[in-house]
Design a protein that fits this description.
The complex is a heterodimer. By secondary structure, chain A is an alpha/beta fold. Chain A has a single domain, classed as NagB/RpiA/CoA transferase-like (Rossmann fold). Chain A has a 6-stranded parallel sheet, with helices on both faces. In chain A, β10 and β11 form a beta hairpin. Chain A is globular. By secondary structure, chain B is of the alpha/beta class. Chain B folds into 2 domains: 279 residues, 3-Layer(aba) Sandwich (Rossmann fold), CATH 3.40.50; 65 residues, no CATH class. Chain B has a 6-stranded parallel sheet, with helices on both faces. Chain B has a 4-stranded mixed sheet with strand order 8-5-6-9. In chain B, α4 packs across α13 and α17 runs parallel beside α19. Chain B starts with a helix and ends with a helix. Classes of the chains: A alpha/beta, B alpha/beta. Chains A and B meet through α1, α4, α5, β9 and β10 of A and α1, α3, α4, α5 and β1 of B. β9 of chain A pairs antiparallel with β9 of chain B. Bound molecules: iron/sulfur cluster.
C-alpha cells in the first residue's frame, strides 16, 4: 500500500458516513464596490509607499526625479521605453544573472491589478512586469498603475487574475513585525516602493 | 479486517517532532509565570497587536459575513478532504509539480531529506512553516549533514539564540529588542558593538546577513497558507520578503503542507486573504503574498515538490466535534487575546502550537493521553472564540477534550475550577491571597481552600505572579 492510499484511506475512514457532497457557503460579504483612487493613495501612503499622480507623458520625468542621475535600472522586456528617462542606465532583462539584478539600484515595472481597500499592487509576470526576481532584489521598486487597473477589493482582484501565472501581491515596502510587534520597513525585499498612478 | 485496520486514522507518532512537551502544562507554566521580563514582553506585544487588529477589523463592514464564509468553506473542506486532495494532486502534477504523500512526521522527513540529497546540496533556506517545525524537519536535515537556515527574522532570532518559538506568528515574541541585539552580536560574524537596538538597525543586520545565503542556496523549503484544489495554486503569506526570496531564487522548491490547508476553489481565496492579515498582523494586507502553480518556465524554481502531510490529522478528522481544530488558518489571534497565554507564554504548551488553538490541536494530533493537561490550560472565557476569524469554537473543544483526558477526577475538576477562577478577578484574588497565606503557613499548597486544593494535592500550584491577575487586568 502506498502512502497515498494509506492517507486517503485513513481520511475516508475518519469521515465514515459523515462524508457529504458539499456544504453551502454563505457569500453575503461584499464582492464588488466602487473603485476609489483616493482610498488607494491613502492606503499606499499609510504603509509607507510613495505615491506620484501624473499623466503618462510625465512618467520619465518623474522617474528621473526619484532616481539619481547615472543610476542603474533593470526593467522587464515589455516595459514601454518611453517611461524611462535618459538620465539612468537601463538594463533590459533577457535572462540577467541574479547578481546583476541585485546590483541594480532600482527596478521599474507595470502591474496587473491594484486593490484600493488594502493598498495592494499585484504583479503577474506579464511582459511589462517580468520575472519575479526582477522586482525582488533591487532596493527600490517603481511601479506604474493605470486607473483602470484599480479595483475596490480583494474579490475583484482575484477575479481579474489568472491562477496560472506566478503572482506577487505587494502592500508597501518589505516590513517585519518581529521585533516587539512594531512594523519596521526594510528587511529582504525592496525597502523603497514608489507607485506612479496614472489617470 | 485488514483493510479496516490499515485505513484507521492514526495519531502523530512519538519520538519525532515537536508536538509533545517534556512536562505537563501546570509545571511548565510555572517558569513563565515566574519570569517578569517574559510577561512584560508578551503583555506589550499582545496589547499592541490587539489594538492594531481591532482597528483594521473595524474598517470592514462585512467582517462577520467573511467569518461565516470562512467557517463554512473550512467545514466543506473537511467533509470532502479526500477528493479535494486528489484534485489538488492532479492539478499540481499537470502544472509540472511532483506530489508526495507523508503518513507521518518520519515519512515526511525522509521524503524531504531524500529530495534535498538528490540535488547534491548541503544547505537549504527555509520560510517559516509550522508544519516543518511540527515534524522536526530541521533536526532530521541536520542528522544527515544538511544545514537548514531559517530566514524569517523571528525564526532566525530563535535559531541563533538556540531557543524555541513561543508564538505562531511572532516566534520570538518573548524576546525584546535588547535581547535580540545581544543574540545578533554574539552569533553573527562581522556585527560589532556599535549596533543599536533600534528595530530598523536590527532588521538591516539580518538583511545583510542573509543576502548571500539567499543568492547561493539551491534548495528552499516552505510551508503553505493555502492550496487551491481546482487550480493547483499554492499561496504563502509573509511580510519580510524572505518568503519571496525562497520561493523565487532556488532551483528546487519543496513545500510541506498539512493536508487541511487545501481550499476548494480559487474564489475561496477572496475570503481568507481578507480574514488572515487583519486577524493576524493587524494589517489590511501583509506586505507580500506569493502564489504559484506548479512550475513556470523561466521564472522561479524549475523543480517543485509538494509534500502532503497527515501526521495525526486523520485522527483529528475522525472526531466530529474535534475536527473543527483543523479549520485553523494559524493567524494567532486566539493567542493574542488569551489571558492564560499572556501570563504563561508559549513555551508552557510544550508543542509548536501554543495558546488556545494549541490546547485543542496538540492533544488531538498526539492523542489526548500524551497532552492530557493542555485541555485544562484555559479559563473558558471565550475570548478566543470571538477573535477567531474562522469561528472555531475553542471553548467547546476544550470541554469536549476534558471529557476524554484521563486525569484523576479530583485534579481535573480542580484544574478546571482554578482556570475558571483565574478569569474572575474577585475569586482569583481571594484564592491568591489564600495561597500566599498558606505559603507563610508552611509547605506550598497546604491548606489552600477549594477550588484550588484538589489540583495542588497532586501538582504544585504555579507561583502566583508578582503582579496579581487584578493588577494585570487593570493595565492591559
Ligand atoms: S484557532 Fe482561529 S484564532 Fe486561533 S490561530 Fe487558528 S484561526 Fe487564528
Amino acid at each position: 500500500m502506498t502512502a497515498r492510499e494509506l492517507v486517503l484511506g485513513r481520511l475516508r475512514a475518519a469521515l465514515g458516513t459523515d462524508a457529504r457532497a458539499s456544504v453551502e457557503v454563505p457569500r453575503a460579504y461584499r464582492r464588488a464596490g466602487m473603485r476609489d483612487l483616493e482610498q488607494l493613495v491613502d492606503r499606499l501612503v499609510d504603509y509607507r509607499a510613495e505615491v506620484h499622480r501624473l499623466a503618462e507623458a510625465d512618467i520619465a520625468d518623474t522617474i528621473s526625479g526619484i532616481l539619481p542621475s547615472g543610476a542603474t535600472v533593470v526593467v522587464p522586456p515589455g516595459l514601454p521605453p518611453a517611461w524611462l528617462p535618459s538620465t539612468v542606465t537601463v538594463v533590459v532583462d533577457g535572462g540577467l544573472a541574479n547578481e546583476q539584478i541585485g546590483a541594480a539600484d532600482a527596478v521599474v515595472t507595470a502591474v496587473a491589478v491594484a486593490v484600493a481597500e488594502t493598498g495592494t499592487v499585484v504583479l503577474d509576470g506579464s511582459p511589462d512586469q517580468g520575472r519575479r526576481v526582477l522586482s525582488l532584489l533591487p532596493d527600490l521598486h517603481v511601479c506604474v498603475v493605470r486607473a483602470d487597473q484599480v479595483v475596490a477589493g480583494v474579490p475583484e482582484a482575484l477575479a481579474r487574475l489568472s491562477p496560472h501565472r506566478p503572482l506577487t501581491w505587494i502592500s508597501g515596502p518589505s516590513a517585519t513585525s518581529d521585533i516587539e510587534l512594531n512594523r519596521v520597513e526594510g528587511v529582504h525585499g525592496p525597502r523603497n516602493l514608489h507607485v506612479i498612478l496614472l489617470p | 479486517m485488514t483493510r479496516t485496520f490499515l485505513g484507521m486514522p492514526v495519531t502523530a507518532p512519538p519520538g519525532v517532532g515537536h508536538l509533545r512537551g517534556a512536562e505537563p502544562f501546570p509545571s511548565a507554566a510555572r517558569r513563565g509565570l515566574a519570569d517578569p521580563q517574559l510577561r512584560r514582553n508578551l503583555g506589550h506585544a499582545t496589547k499592541t497587536i490587539r489594538a492594531k487588529s481591532a482597528g483594521v477589523i473595524g474598517e470592514v463592514p462585512d467582517w462577520q459575513e467573511l467569518r461565516a464564509a470562512g467557517s463554512a468553506i473550512k467545514t466543506d473542506v473537511m467533509a470532502r478532504l479526500p477528493e479535494l486532495l486528489e484534485q489538488l494532486e492532479a492539478k499540481v502534477t499537470a502544472a509540472g509539480g511532483v506530489v508526495h504523500w507523508a503518513a507521518d512526521a518520519n515519512e515526511a522527513n525522509r521524503i524531504v531529506t531524500d529530495l534535498v540529497r538528490a540535488t547534491g546540496g548541503s544547505r537549504v533556506i527555509k520560510v517559516k512553516s509550522m508544519a516543518t517545525q511540527e515534524i522536526g524537519l530541521n533536526e532530521a536535515l541536520e542528522a544527515v549533514g544538511i544545514e537548514p537556515v531559517e530566514t524569517d527574522l523571528a525564526e532566525l532570532i530563535v535559531q541563533l539564540g538556540d531557543d524555541r518559538p513561543s508564538h505562531i506568528l511572532v516566534p520570538a515574541i518573548h524576546r525584546n529588542r535588547a535581547e535580540i541585539r545581544e543574540i545578533f552580536l554574539r552569533t553573527m560574524p562581522g556585527v560589532d558593538s556599535t549596533l543599536t537596538d533600534e528595530p530598523a538597525a536590527l532588521a538591516a543586520v539580518a538583511r545583510r546577513y542573509l543576502r548571500q545565503t539567499f543568492l547561493t542556496t539551491k534548495v528552499a523549503i516552505s510551508g503553505a497558507n493555502f492550496a487551491v484544489a481546482d487550480t493547483g495554486t499554492l499561496a504563502v503569506v509573509e511580510s519580510e520578503g524572505n518568503g519571496r526570496m525562497c520561493l523565487t531564487l532556488p532551483e528546487t522548491l519543496i513545500t510541506v503542507m498539512g493536508i487541511e490547508k487545501v481550499v476548494p476553489t480559487w474564489r475561496d481565496l477572496e475570503v481568507f486573504l481578507q480574514l488572515l492579515p487583519r486577524a493576524s498582523t493587524g494589517e489590511r494586507m501583509n506586505p507580500y503574498t506569493s502564489m504559484w502553480t506548479g512550475v513556470t518556465p523561466g521564472d522561479g524554481p524549475q523543480a517543485f515538490h509538494l509534500v502532503l502531510l497527515d501526521n495525526g490529522r486523520s485522527a483529528v478528522l475522525a472526531d466530529e466535534v474535534g475536527r473543527q481544530a483543523l479549520h485553523c488558518i494559524r493567524c494567532s489571534a486566539c493567542l493574542n487575546v488569551c489571558p492564560v497565554y499572556e501570563r504563561t507564554g508559549g513555551h508552557a504548551y510544550g508543542s509548536v502550537y501554543p495558546g488556545p488553538i494549541g490546547a485543542v490541536l496538540s492533544p488531538q494530533l498526539t492523542g489526548v493521553a500524551d497532552n492530557s493537561s493542555l485541555p485544562y490550560a484555559s479559563s473558558l472565557c471565550g475570548a478566543c472564540y470571538d477573535a477567531c476569524p474562522v469561528k472555531i469554537n475553542i471553548p467547546e473543544l476544550l470541554v469536549h477534550l476534558r471529557d476524554q483526558a484521563p486525569h484523576p477526577r479530583g485534579e481535573a475538576t480542580a484544574m478546571a475550577a482554578a482556570a475558571y477562577t483565574m478569569n474572575r478577578p474577585r475569586l482569583y484574588q481571594a484564592a491568591q491571597r489564600a495561597v500566599r497565606l498558606s505559603r507563610l503557613a508552611g509547605r506550598r499548597g497546604r491548606g489552600i481552600p477549594p477550588p484550588l486544593d484538589g489540583w495542588t494535592a497532586s501538582r504544585d500550584l504555579p507561583d502566583p505572579p508578582a503582579q496579581t491577575f487584578r493588577d494585570w487586568w487593570a493595565t492591559r
